[in-house]
């Protein structure tokens, strides 16, 4: 029998389970969200493994992002310690695409596709007003893959800001100067910012910057709203220019929609790989494509680090070429080095980087 434990790790403590049959799961791929329900926190390794033992479960499939996969690794370790014959399989799930080793995580393609709708809306709005400035905040706590790919796909973005690439607002080569020059050139500007970008600049009066949620993730400030206010204040008070701000936050619209065809196929492959691995006697593994080939990866391997945008990769260089935005490195190398956000080798490589092919 197959059953789902609802509500994330808290489901292990509940007696209520849902038996899964072909009829029950027949149409779930056509709906957004998750029929399993989800929650943050609630992980207690000993209690979870006790529940697995008491219920007589011999296969556990754990679906989630890097935090969930870390929990799966702990469960696997405890299962091994007790000598239980239980297969523990992880299935990576995060639209942020920040899970290491694998090529991408499911939901990412759908998120990028939907993010373009928000960008298009911002572009239409700012084109219809004088000195229009559109700010679109997209998901991306520690990595800017959604923002980067949506920017490249839309071709309507003037500047993309991500956590991996620090930026500054004022002075020569700063964001304000770029916005002003782009408004003089086109009459409007569209900025895409990942939710984790620029957190060090945001006023900490909203809440403690080190405050965390139930899963141990640092709570992020609303950088999109903060940036919108900063731009408005700068141009109205300092530059004495009237600007029309348009702020769009499509976070839950992007996450809640049904998956597209690409992700539907990808999910099927992940599910089949996970089941085949467990049935073959493997345990403590995560499934996913590596260099285009589906592989079984030790869970501990994918939790060692996070997948982030590399500023020296061709994809980021293509984005800079597409938007013609400043790299924000030339005038603030010292600041970046002090912050240990970009090392000297990375700065030098970006300065020397030239597009020779597309």
TrEMBL record:
> Its GO CC terms?
cytosol
* Official protein name in the record: Phosphofructokinase domain-containing protein
Catalytic function, reaction form: beta-D-fructose 6-phosphate + ATP = beta-D-fructose 1,6-bisphosphate + ADP + H(+)
Q: Which InterPro entries match?
A: ATP_PFK, PFKA, Phosphofructokinase_dom, PKF_sf, PyroP-dep_PFK_TP0108
Q: A GO molecular function for this record?
A: ATP binding
Keyword set for this entry?
A: Allosteric enzyme, ATP-binding, Cytoplasm, Glycolysis, Kinase, Magnesium, Metal-binding, Nucleotide-binding, Transferase
Recorded source organism is Linum tenue
Give the main location: cytoplasm
- Any GO BP annotation: fructose 6-phosphate metabolic process
Q: What are the required cofactors?
A: Mg(2+)
Q: Where is the Phosphofructokinase domain?
A: 6-276
Cited function? Catalyzes the phosphorylation of D-fructose 6-phosphate to fructose 1,6-bisphosphate by ATP, the first committing step of glycolysis.
Name its cellular compartments: Cytoplasm
